């Protein structure tokens, strides 16, 4: 997008033709579409505020519940700065943008270090449980020995749906409550996958 395109988008919001939430969505979409292209400094500064506003809207769960005073002030500053700012040359190293990208990367990585490790630990625990109870079910249902059951159980545990079903049967066979086994072997994996996919569709892959 050109500086004029960014200015038109900001004008639509400040003039009341776009709600704050709609402006934030279109701004983020335009930002992603501009990946690899020079972006005015004013837009780079505004992006931080838009990103924070969108996160607040997501937390609130409904439109109109979050005040857009800060967003409006930032948009007004960005519009004023766009009028004064010279176009960014595509061959010029943009130090401000590089610094902002590095700061966002550090924040994202610090969050991933905690949340990512927790999710990884939960998945490892779930895999171990699934392998164990699939093996137990095979040993009990087919009358096989421990080693053949363990080998086949290890393979089947990682087969989607089949592994979950067999682990569920093995756990309930060992005395688990049905609802607990259903949560562990069906609901938890499904919720994690859907959550990750939903976030990927909303924010897209990391910008290079």
UniProtKB/TrEMBL annotation:
Keywords: Membrane, Transmembrane, Transmembrane helix
Regions that span the bilayer: 112-134, 146-167, 179-198
Name recorded for this polypeptide: Uncharacterized protein
Protein's organism: Terricaulis silvestris
Lineage: Bacteria, Pseudomonadati, Pseudomonadota, Alphaproteobacteria, Caulobacterales
